[in-house]
Amino acid sequence: MMSETTYDAIVIGAGHNGLVCACYLAKAGHKVLVLERRPMVGGAVCTEEIWPGYKIDVGSSVHLMIHRTPIIADLELERYGLEYIEMDPWAALPLPGGRAICFHRDLRKTCESIAQVSPRDAIAYEEFVARWLPVTRGVFEAFQKPPTMANFGRHVIFAKSPGRNTSDALRLILSSYGRLIKETFESTEMRAAMGWLAAQSGPAPNEPGTGPFAAWWGAVHETGAKRAKGGSGMLTVALRRAFEALGGTVLTDAPAERIVMKNGRATGVVVGAQTYSARAVVSACHVLTTFQKLLSPEDLPEDLGNRLEALNVGNGFGMTVRCAASELPDYGAGQPHEVHQGMQLLCPTPEFLTDAYADYAAGMPSRKPAVLAMTFSALDNTLAPPGKHTVQLWSQYFPYDRADGRSWDDTREEVADSICETLYTYAPNMRGAIENRFIQSPLDLERTLGLLRGNVMHLEMSLDQMFSFRPLPELSEYKTTIPGLFLTGASTHPGGGVFGASGVSAARVVGNVLKKKS
Questions:
Q1: Which structural domain, as residue segments, surrounds residue 326?
Q2: Spatial contact of 104 and 224, defined as CB atoms under 8 Å apart
Q3: Model pTM greater than 0.85?
């Protein structure tokens, strides 16, 4: 016989957005339960000891956007063990002869570094940041507000840039990042660096509406890029501690099997033989997992199932090779070096990136993939044993469904070899220095982290799936068409990345509903 326990709200999924939502609801005095299918919290913001003494991020690594929110201060996360280390430079493009273009927190130092390659591009970069920073600030403001067209217009389209007008801001939004970068910078090096940074959001360089993916990196000069000491997952560890201190309950190894429906309303969640009842159910998992796995077709309003099927989840796009190594990459300037502080951009030309994308568009893994190398053991000595290092390689592009029909289980090792080859081209000392590696193919990302089809953003970050269109217009404001059921996470506004804005906004919506019914 199934027993029942009643809560004000149940959050399904202990990723960072789910935990943020739960914390704010608990802080408002609500009785909240978080259910997590894995044995630890974190979702795609999680760090595990894959090999003895090595702490490896299994999802995100660099925390950028959360520092533009009040979340860390509001929830007093430093009290619960969260400590951040500044990355400076936060990114670097290694060049022949041990040189590098370094992107520092300080804009002046960044421009001085760029000037070694192209004095004109140094000026262009300073102007680029000044030109688009007001728009980028507006984007981040809009990301933390309800996803209405009014907020989009107020904070983004009508943002004031020096010497620019509303039409110029709209042009940025509608432009592709490839075009924007090409018309702004003259050197191959800056075009490659900025293109690879912009590509981290997923869409192709020539896709309309992606201009902000290049422009928003200028905002990093304001807030910096940071690493959580002890690994990316220390953020979600601290969120769990804060939530439990607020009286919340977290259950791990507790996979939600079904959302309970009574009289057309979501009223709880079934986990094994246990039913947990609640006035509100908040799904922090993928939108398709929510509606296609946790609900039955008969629970869905007419036509919603068809509209969900039409969502663009994409065909994967990235994978990782996370390594235990005996030394750091030597890009020609020795080690350790300042480039090891941040993201190392292993993409020599814009054509290198577009060629990699062309392979992917044809349904095949990139033959020469671009790589983002991260060596955070150079910043944080808690991540690896003495004298050892972690070298994490995020790479693009890799389709979930391959045109050759081969299985990722059969090919993951050889594709990981190709990713490592890009590293060896830049740092030959790493050939033989990698002692262990943990591979996450698009299929692995789906199986382990629930990232359907290997898309770390849940849904493609295309213009037609952003703001009030994410995931669908009728689901865009965190409420669903099913009473009592709410959404948060990367499937919702503002999308993927370590931000937490979706969790805060969802908590506000859920809290207002709970308040009205109390």
A1: 314-452
A2: no
A3: yes
Whose structure tokens read 């996450």?
440
Number of structural domains found in the chain: 3
Q: Which two tokens stand for residue 191?
A: 């075009």
Query: What was the pLDDT predicted at 3?
Result: 46
Q: What is the mean pLDDT of residues 96-112?
A: 97
Tokens of 472: 């669908």
Q: Using one digit for the tens of pLDDT, what is the confidence trace for 421-479?
A: 999 999 999 999 999 999 999 999 999 999 999 999 999 999 899 989 999 999 999 99
- The proportion of the chain whose per-residue pLDDT surpasses 90, expressed as a percent, equals 87
**What are the residues facing 434 on neighbouring strands?**
325
Are residues 468 and 147 in contact, defined by beta-carbon separation less than 8 angstroms? yes
Name the pairing type of β-strands 32-35 and 4-12. parallel
Alpha carbons 293 and 285: distance in angstroms, whole number: 11
CA-nearest of 180, 140, 184, 186 to 159 is 140
Which structure tokens are listed for 455? 């898309």
Dist CA 401 CA 316 (whole Å): 8
Instruction: Let me know whether 321 and 356 are in one domain.
Output: yes
Q: pLDDT tens across 336-372, in order? A: 899 999 999 999 999 999 999 999 999 999 999 999 9
Show which of 452, 484, 505 is a domain's final residue.
Answer: 452
How far apart CA 353 and CA 189 sit, in angstroms, is 12
Cis peptide before 471 (omega within 30 of 0): yes
